[in-house]
Amino acid sequence: MSPKTLYDKIWDAHLVDEQADGTCLLYIDRHLVHEVTSPQAFEGLRLTHRKVHAPDKTIAVPDHNVPTTQGRENPEQMTEDSRIQVQALDTNAKEFGIHYYPVSDVRQGIVHIVGPEQGWTLPGMTVVCGDSHTATHGAFGALAHGIGTSEVEHVLATQTLIQKKSKNMKVEITGKLKPGVTAKDITLAVIGKTGTAGGTGYVIEYCGEAIRDLSMEGRMTVCNMAIEGGARAGLIAPDETTFEYVKGRPHAPKGAQWETALEWWKTLYSDDDAQWDKVVTLKGEEIEPVVTWGTSPEDVLPIGATVPAPEDFEGGKVEAARRSLDYMGLKPGTPLSEIKIDAVFIGSCTNGRIEDLREVAKVVKGKKVAEGVRAMIVPGSGLVRAQAEEEGLADIFAEAGFEWRLAGCSMCLAMNPDQLAPGERCASTSNRNFEGRQGYKGRTHLMSPAMAAAAAVTGHLTDVRELS
Amino acid sequence: MEKFEKLTGIAAPMPLVNIDTDMIIPKQFLKTIKRSGLGVHAFAEMRYDQEGNENPDFVLNKPAYRESKIIVAGDNFGCGSSREHAPWALADFGIKCVISTSFADIFFNNCFKNGILPIVLPQEDIDKLMDDAERGANAVVTVDLENQVITGPDGGEVKFEVDAFKKHCLLNGLDDIGLTMEKAPAIEAFEATASQARPWV
Ligand code: SF4
After folding, report:
1. For labeling, which of A234, A314, A386, A448 is most exposed (least CB within 10 Å)?
2. pLDDT band at residue A68, thresholds of 50, 70 and 90?
3. Does B75 touch chain A (CB under 8 A)?
4. CA distance A465 to A462
């Protein structure tokens, strides 16, 4: 048998049909649905009198639009257009008989946090969602990628997706990370190296000692941003860390089925002599805590660096850098650590899990959010929130002066009322620093939870390792 | 879906690299449960100021380009989110073809589902087409999908590649859900085997 990558193995196990030109029909094991990209798909089913093919493999949760303030069960809290979308999801979930976690359910949260938390996401599965950060689920060794609304409708109707196979790319992070360096720094550093188009046409498998050492939370952070690197999906081979995390989750297999599953999951790795179309290697020891300075996730630099000048770049990037610097209100040569901030956002499907909150708590314990800084923590799910309260983290946040919110996407994309004002600058643990992403004319610097926490207490971008 | 055979129209130059989906359609316009009517919001934050007045410097606001049907763009067009609102907005504006050196994957796929043809060309061809597109009202370009040829205002021709299946669907305006449903027996057979092999799924 010819050697295979992990991607090849999962692909082959889900192939329904293959045409001579390589167009394939791939079976989908889990379809996650949220309120923003699904209404037109359900409407499409209604218009064509089609049903949801596998309702028991379809899971819906509202997250993008929902308010994160108390009393949100009251629909009055939402703007009319948001309310219409959330109510459409309520109705569609009921009418088509799919699994559903409404805002009143403690298990509600960001779709990419809820899936793994409930054990819907398992190794070796194919997972799709009308959301590009579906890549997150690749942390389990599941082939997971974002799809558009027409494809959502296609999966709802047929439980399959028309696909062509991507190329294989290996991203290896060797050695150990230095203290203060986290999964978020890894994933940003990779994008800084490959660029936002470096992964286009590829599925990335992350491997190497530094990846193996990560918890499931950290692995999800890494895979989450595969899409920012242009890749359709990111994967990490499942191992004991994965099995440990999955075991006992509500929808994970139990008993004899667990054993059968485990047996197969243990075969899910890239063979030693597998062929790669592209290989990128980073040394774990060389990765520094990083932040972004511009309006593309590839605009990454170590916190000790200075703001670059447009002339430092080539081709179309010169103009893009000029535009970014103007938008961000930054002067070339300014040390990154002197950039003052107005707001801090801790949350999102990149960094809204319990481990992220623990890191924040470690940094801010006994300290105060700097004068004039608005700082918000939005847990990724109701269960993350409950656990943080149980562990006493919520008290630490409150004493430090953070707002402690209910679960949702919140200021990651600012579709709900959580937004930056024009010109406001934010240290954010989310994944996109595009123009206007966190609010019209808002300015975003991406970084790890520990770094965002450090910025919150000093009021400027800060190397977390320099905080006592 | 509308058929795409031959398209002749003004090509607008957008040389900026990494034009992302938030630029193509900002999130405040995603709160719709329909597919139509998004054209007025396409490129909203570049196209209008905060009061909603048109920014006269933005290419699609210039008299020569208001009716553009084609965009010639910088690298990595459509990066960012999976929102199909991006191609919906472009199509509703009247853009039926985008030409660049590279596209983000999901955006690229979404285009085909909405009658938009995204074309990938090498940098030198893009440079030439970008020059053509700079000619304002004279930037008339023809895209012939059947023969896979772009003809510039001077009659110069550029060949392009396109996936055969996607071309077939676009030329014939085919709905791929219908096509897949014809494969129901294969899907059912797969499900029967998979439920034996992986009963926990
Ligand atoms: S948290 Fe942000 S990136 Fe993640 S699903 Fe929500 S909006 Fe998308």
Report:
1. A314
2. very high
3. yes
4. 8
Q: Is residue B152 part of a domain?
A: yes
Do B38 and B29 meet the contact criterion of CB atoms below 8 Å apart?
Answer: yes
Structural domain span for residue A229: 167-239+269-286
pLDDT (tens digit, 9 = 90+) per residue, B117-172? 999 999 999 999 999 999 998 999 999 999 999 999 999 999 999 999 999 999 99
As a whole number of angstroms, the distance between CA A287 and CA A289 comes to: 7
Pocket of ligand 1 (CB under 6 A): A 63-64, 110, 112, 131, 133, 348-349, 409, 412-413, 430-431
Q: How many domains does chain B have?
A: 1
CATH number of domain containing B139: 3.20.19.10
A328 and A446 in a single domain? The answer is: yes
Q: Tell whether B137 is within 8 A of chain A (Cβ).
A: no
Q: Cα–Cα distance between A357 and A347 in angstroms, integer? A: 9
What pLDDT is stored for residue A217 in this prediction? 98
Please identify among residues 154-213 of chain A the ones whose CB lies closer than 8 Å to any CB of chain B.
Answer: 154, 157-160, 162, 164, 196-197, 200-201
Q: Is the pLDDT of residue A277 over 80?
A: yes
Residues A119-168: tens digit of each pLDDT: 999 999 999 999 999 999 999 999 999 999 999 999 999 999 999 999 99
Residue A417 is predicted with a pLDDT of 87
Binding-site residue numbers of A are: 349, 409, 412
Q: What angle do CA B146, B149, B155 make, to 5 degrees?
A: 135
Q: What is the pLDDT of residue B37?
A: 92
Residue A38 confidence (pLDDT): 97
Ligand 1 atom nearest the C-alpha of A136 is 4
**Closest C-alpha to ligand 1, atom 6:** A409
The CATH number of the domain holding residue A11 is: 3.30.499.10
Tokens for B145, please give them. Answer: 């999908």
B22 within some domain: yes
Q: Is the pLDDT of residue A274 over 80?
A: yes
A148 and A199 in one domain? no
pLDDT (0 to 100) of residue A92: 97
With beta carbons under 8 A apart, name residues in chain B contacting A23.
163, 165
Interface contact B167, partner A, CB < 8 A: no
What are A99's strand-pairing partners?
A: A59
pTM attached to this predicted model = 0.93
- What mean pLDDT do residues B105-122 have? 95
Domain that holds residue B16: 6-197
Q: Quick check: is A390 in a domain?
A: yes
Last residue of a domain, one of A110, A139, A164: A164
Q: Enumerate the known binding-site residues of A for [4Fe-4S] cluster.
A: 349, 409, 412
Q: Does residue A185 share a domain with residue A122? A: no
* Nearest residue in B to A149, CA atom: B84
A201, B80: Cβ pair inside 8 Å? Answer: no
B30: CB partners within 8 A, 6+ apart: A36, A37, A64, A415, B83, B85
Structurally, chain A folds into a number of domains equal to: 3
Nearest by CB: A147 against B82, B102, B176:
B82
Q: How far is A322 from chain B (nearest CA, A)?
A: 11
Q: What is the pLDDT averaged over residues A76-84? A: 88
Q: CB within 8 A of A35, min separation 6: which ones?
A: A62, A63, A64, A65, A85, A86, A88, A89
pLDDT digits (tens, 9 = 90+) for A92-111: 999 999 999 999 999 999 99
Burial of B182 (0-12, 13-18, 19+ CB in 10 A): exposed
Do A192 and A139 lie in a common domain? no
Query: CA-based diameter of chain A, in Å?
Result: 64
